[in-house]
Write a structure and sequence with these properties.
- The chain has one domain: Rossmann fold.
- Helix 2 links the parallel strand 5 and strand 6.
- The strands form two sheets. An eight-stranded mixed sheet has the order 1-6-5-4-7-8-9-10, with helices on both faces.
- The chain is of the alpha/beta class and 283 residues long.
Length: 283
C-alpha cells in the first residue's frame, strides 16, 4: 500500500533549523546534508517506523529536512499517522507497508521508495522482533523468521538501495544490534545470532563502500521504554532504572537523535562503528 503526499519545495521560501550549528534555506541545494542529486532533500527509509523508536526517528529526520519513507508490517493507520506528522515539517512522506522479513516484501518496499523518490540515501534498519524461545524448543521456522527480520532484512534492503547511494557518492546505512548479541541471553539465541550478523555486515559494508561515499554504522540501544510505558508498575524496569548510571531509562527520542547524528554530514568520518546508546551501562 502506498500513501504519498507530494509538495513542491522549490516554490517555498521557508527556512528550517538543523541542529549542527548552521541554518539551511530549503531552496539552497548546495549546503549541508539536505542535498541529494535526485531530490531537493535526502530521502530516508526507516523500517518499523509506525511506533516507538522508529516513529521518533522518522519524525526527527523529517525535522532535519529529510523526505521519509514510513514502513510497518500491519498497522497502516499508525504508519499513516506518522506520515502526517512527518509532513508537518514541510517534507514528503511515503507509507510503504510490507514485511521486511520476506525477500519479496523487502523488494517491494524498496521499489515503492525508489519509484517515489528516485533514490533512498539514508537506510535505517530499525525493524526487529525479540521473542524469548528456549534453544532446545525453537523450531527451524521460528529461527528463520527471527533471523530474516533481525538480519536479512538489512541485507535485502541494503542490496536494493546501495546502488543509488553509490551513484551519487553519498549514503548512510544504519543498523541495530544490542546486548543480546554482545552478551548472549538465555532464551534469545536466534536474536543474538541475527544481531551478531548485523554487526558483521555493518563492518563489511563500511570497508567496501566507504571509499564510495557511503558509511555504515550500527546502534546498540540500552533499555528503551516503549511509548506509554509505566515504569512504576514494572518491577523489571524499576531494577534496570536503579542500575543505570544516568538515573533514567532510554526513550525513543534518544535513539532518534543518535540516528540523526549518524545520518548527518558531520558524521561522515564515522564509519564501521558501534554507537552504544544506553545511559552509561558498561559491560
Amino acid at each position: 500500500m502506498i500513501s504519498l503526499g507530494l509538495s513542491v519545495f522549490r516554490e517555498r521560501q521557508a527556512t528550517i533549523d538543523v541542529d549542527f550549528g548552521f541554518r539551511e534555506d530549503v531552496n539552497d541545494l548546495h549546503k549541508g546534508w539536505l542535498m541529494n542529486k535526485k531530490t531537493d532533500r535526502h530521502v530516508a527509509l526507516v523500517t518499523g517506523s509506525g511506533r516507538n523508536a522508529g516513529r521518533a526517528t522518522a519524525i526527527e529526520l523529517a525535522k532535519r529536512g529529510c523526505h521519509v519513507v514510513i514502513n510497518g508490517s500491519s498497522n497502516q493507520a499508525a504508519c499513516e499517522a506518522v506520515a502526517d506528522e512527518v509532513r508537518q515539517n514541510g517534507v514528503d512522506a511515503l507509507v510503504a507497508m510490507g514485511d521486511v522479513g520476506d525477500p519479496e516484501g523487502a523488494a517491494a518496499i524498496a521499489e515503492q521508495a525508489l519509484e517515489a523518490f528516485g533514490v533512498v540515501d539514508i537506510l535505517v534498519n530499525n525493524a526487529a522482533i525479540r521473542p524469548s524461545v528456549d534453544f532446545l524448543e525453537v523450531s527451524e521456522a521460528q529461527w528463520d523468521r527471527i533471523f530474516n527480520i533481525d538480519f536479512k532484512a538489512s541485507f535485502w534492503l541494503s542490496r536494493a538501495l546501495l546502488p543509488g547511494m553509490i551513484e551519487q557518492g553519498w549514503g548512510r546505512v544504519i543498523n541495530f544490534t544490542g546486548k543480546n548479541a554482545q552478551e548472549g541471553y538465555a532464551g534469545k539465541s536466534p536474536v543474538a545470532v541475527a544481531k551478531h550478523a548485523a554487526w558483521g555486515l555493518t563492518k563489511s559494508l563500511a570497508r567496501e563502500f566507504g571509499p564510495r561515499g557511503v558509511t555504515a554504522n550500527i546502534i546498540s540501544p540500552g533499555t528503551i521504554t516503549d511509548d506509554g510505558a509505566d515504569i512504576e508498575a514494572d518491577s523489571r524496569l524499576q531494577a534496570l532504572l536503579a542500575a543505570n548510571p544516568s538515573g533514567r531509562l532510554g526513550v525513543p527520542q534518544d535513539i532518534a537523535t543518535a540516528v540523526a547524528f549518524l545520518a548527518s554530514e558531520e558524521a561522515g568520518f564515522i564509519n564501521g562503528q558501534m554507537l552504544q546508546v544506553n545511559g552509561g551501562v558498561v559491560s
